[in-house]
UniProtKB/TrEMBL annotation, chain A:
Record-annotated FAD-dependent oxidoreductase 2 FAD-binding domain positions: 97-481
InterPro entries, per database record: FAD-dep_OxRdtase_2_FAD-bd (IPR003953), FAD/NAD-bd_sf (IPR036188), SdhA/FrdA/AprA (IPR030664), Succ_DH/fumarate_Rdtase_cat_sf (IPR027477)
Organism: Sulfurimicrobium lacus
Keywords from the UniProt entry: Flavoprotein, Oxidoreductase
Cofactor(s) of this protein: FAD
The name this protein goes by in its record: FAD-dependent oxidoreductase 2 FAD-binding domain-containing protein
Automatic annotation (TrEMBL), chain B:
Domain of life: Bacteria
Database matches in InterPro entries: 2Fe-2S_ferredoxin-like_sf (IPR036010), 2Fe-2S_ferredoxin-type (IPR001041), 2Fe2S_fd_BS (IPR006058), 4Fe4S_Fe-S-bd (IPR017896), 4Fe4S_Fe_S_CS (IPR017900)
Pfam family, one: Fer4_7
Keyword Iron-sulfur among record annotations: yes
Sorted UniProt keywords: Iron, Iron-sulfur, Metal-binding
Location of the 4Fe-4S ferredoxin-type domain: 107-138, 146-176
One GO MF term attached to the UniProt entry: 2 iron, 2 sulfur cluster binding
The species this protein was found in: Sulfurimicrobium lacus
Domain 2Fe-2S ferredoxin-type: 11-89
Signal peptide (UniProt feature, chain positions): none
The name this protein goes by in its record: 4Fe-4S ferredoxin
Amino acid sequence: MYPEYMAESLRKVAQTRPGRLELARKPAPVYPPMNAEERQAVLEGFHPDYEPSARRPVRVGPNRGETLTTEVADLLESHSWLRSEQVDLEHPDFETDLLIIGGGGAGCNAALVAMQEHGMRSMIATKLRMGDSNTIMSQGGMQAAVSATDSPTRHFLDAIGGGHFENKPELVKALTEDGPAVVKWLEDLGVVWDKEEDGSMQVLHGGGTSRKRMVSCRDYTGAMIMRTLMDEVRNHPDMITIKEFMPAVELIMDDEGRCAGAILYSMDSEEFFTVKAKSTLIATGGYGRLHIRGYDTTNHYGATGDGLVMAYRAGAKLMYMDSVQYHPTGASFPEQIAGFLITEKIRGAGGQPLNKDGELFVFPREPRDIEASAIIRECVQNGGGVETPSGRLGVWLDSPLIDMLHGEGYVAHQFPAMYRQYIRYGIDINKLPMLIYPSLHYQNGGVEINERCETDIPGLYVAGEATGGLHGRNRLMGNSVLDYNVFGRRAGRYAGEYAKSVKLGRLSLAHLDKFEQELADSGVQTDLVTPILLPSYAPKDVKKRRLVRGGNVLPGASVLHNRLHDERSGN
Amino acid sequence: MSAAENLAEERHITVYIMGKAYEVPAEATIMGAIEYAGHQIIRGAGCREGYCGACATIYRLPGDYKIRTGLACMTLVEDGMTLAQIPSVPAEKAIYDIEKLKPDVSAMMQVYPTIFRCVACNTCTKACPQGLQVMDYIQAAKRGDIAAVMDLSFDCVECGLCMLRCPAEITQPLVGILGKRLYGRYLRKESPDLVAKVKAVEDGAFEAEYAEMMALSREALSQRYYALDSE
C-alpha cells in the first residue's frame, strides 16, 4: 500500500481522472506530441546518455578512439579469463556444426532453422537454464505489420524515425519485411496470440507507432514465445544439444582468421571446455545487469554483455556503443520491485503518466528515449515527482483509466502478471496508479552485422540484442521481440548454410595474446576480468570481508564479484 | 521523512538459510535476503521479476509444520522463516511432433499419459505461487478440453513446485505447454489479413517502396516520417 503522505497526490490524480478520461475518448492525442526540436531539447537536457561522465573513449580494440558508454569502455578494456598457452586446442571436448552461445529467443530460433533448412546440428551453450533470457520477460508484445491498414514499409518508417534516422536501413528492411512471416511461424509452432473474434490479430499502439501494430499474448508475450521455442528445441535432442550453466568465455579462431567455436566455462565445476564449431552464433543478449549510470534495470540476471567482450577481443567491430535505452516506466515503488518493467502496453492501452498534481506533462506514446527524458525532466527540473520512502523519485502511471476506456475486466485479462506484481503489496492497479521512473532496459548498440547476421569475421554470426545498428540510437517497443525472431531465424539460415561448406584450419587463441599486448601497449591498468557472467548483490561489508581474503581466490569467485556494480551505483 | 532518516530506521529480522541464521532487512524478498546474506545465487535466480520460475523456494514458518512454496524473487521474508531454494525439478519432457497430434484427448493420452494418475488431491494448486488452478487444468487435459488447459495454464512460469508436490508425479507445466501449443496451432481462427500480408511480402509488393525510401536523404526521410498520420 502507498504510504500515508502520498494520499494528497493520489487524491489529485483521482480528481483529474474524469477530465482525462473524456480527453482520451476523443480522437486527438491527450497531450501534444513533441516536434523534432522539442525532442532534441529534452534528450540533450535530460537523457542519461548526455551527462558528461556517461561516455569516454576506448583505448583498445577495433573501436579504439571511439567514445563509448563509460561502463562499456571499462568492460572492453579488461583481461581474459584464459591464458592461451594453457588451453589444449588439439583435442576439442565437443564438436558441432553450429555453436550457439545463448539459449534465449534468437538462439532457439537459429537452432531450429539451421536444422530445418540445412540439416545442421547445433549446440546451445547457455549461462543459466535454457530460456533464461530477456526474451522470457518481455511483456507487452511484438511489432509486426499484420493489419489491413498497416504495411511493412510504414513499420520501416516508424522504426527509422524512432531511431533518429541512424538505423542501418538494410537491417530495418529485413526486420519489417520478415515481420508478418514471423507471426505466422510462431503461430504454427503453437504461440497463442491475442486475437479478435473473427481470427484477426489483436493489435495495440506502442510508443512511436503510427499504426496499431503490437501483437501480444496477454502480458506474457515473451514467456509464451520462449516456452514454445524451447519446447520445440527439446523435441529434437538428436540434432540440438543443450549445455546449461556452461557460458562461453572466449571465441576460438582458426589460423586463417575464421571463427571456429568457443571455450565454455562450467559454472558448477569451474572447468573450461573447448568446442570446435564450423560456425558460431553469438546470441547472448544485452548488458542491463551492468547497471549503467547506477540505474535499476528491467533485465535478466545474466545480462552482462558477455557476447560483446568475446566478439571484440576476436576483432569484431561494435556499433553505437554510446547509446543506452532507459525504459520510461520502471517501477519506483515498492522498493522490492524497483526497476521492474511496467510494460509499455499499459500506455498503449490508454494509461497516462501524471505528475504529483495529477497533471499530464507528456504525450504518453512518445518514442522511449523521449518519454523517459520527459519523465526525468518532470522529476528533476520541474519538481513534479513524488518521493518514495527510500528516496527514489517517480511519477504516476494512471492504470485505473484503462478499464474505464475498454470496459471492466480488461486489465485483469490483459495484464494478469502486472496485476499480480502489485497486489502482493496491497496495490490494486485497477483502482490505484503505479509510481514509475525510467529503468535501464536495452543495449542499443552491439556487434555490427549485415542482414545475413554476418560480422567482419568469417564464421561469426550475431543475432538479437547483442547486435547494433538495427534500432539506431533508440528502439521502439516490440521491435526487440521481432528482432530476435527475425534475426535468430536469419542467423540459423546463413550460419547453417556456411557450416555446410567450410573447412576449418588449425585452432588458435592468438587473438587473446594480441589483445593482452594491446592493453599493455595502451597503458591500460585494470583488474577487471571478463566476461562478468553474473552480477553480485552482496552488501558492501560482505564484499569487503571477501577482499581481505582475496589475492589467490579462484577465477570464478573473483569474477562473480562484480566490480563495476560496486563502483557505479554505490550499492 | 527524508530518505536518510528512513534508512536509519531500517528494521532487521532473522531468517534461516540452509539452516544458518542471518539478520536481513525486514522488507526484503527471499532472493534479496539470500543475497544480502552474501550468497552468490547461480541456480535459483533468473529473470528476478516473476516470469521465469528459476527461483522456486520452499520455506517453513516458526511453529508451523507446513512446507510452504513461493518464488524467491516475489515472496517477502518473515521473521523466523526457514528457507531453501530448489535448484531444479527433474521432469521428463516427452518428445513429440506437433504436426502429428490432434487437439483433443488423444494427444494427451499419447504424450503425457501420467495425467490419468491424477487423484484430484489439489496439492498442485495449493503449491502454485502464481495462484493458478493447476488441478483444474490437469482435469481439463484428461477431458481433452484443450482451450481450458490453455486458459488455466496461461500464467504458468514453470517453477515446478506443483510437480514436486504431486503424489502422482505428473509434470503439470509440461502438460500446460502442450495444451497451449495445441491451442495456438489448431484451435484459433486464421487471420486473413495476416495471410494476405505474408503473401504480399513474398510477392515483393513492398520492394519498390522500400527501394524508394532507402534512396531518400535523411532530411527527406525525416519529412516523410513527421508527416505520417496516426491511427
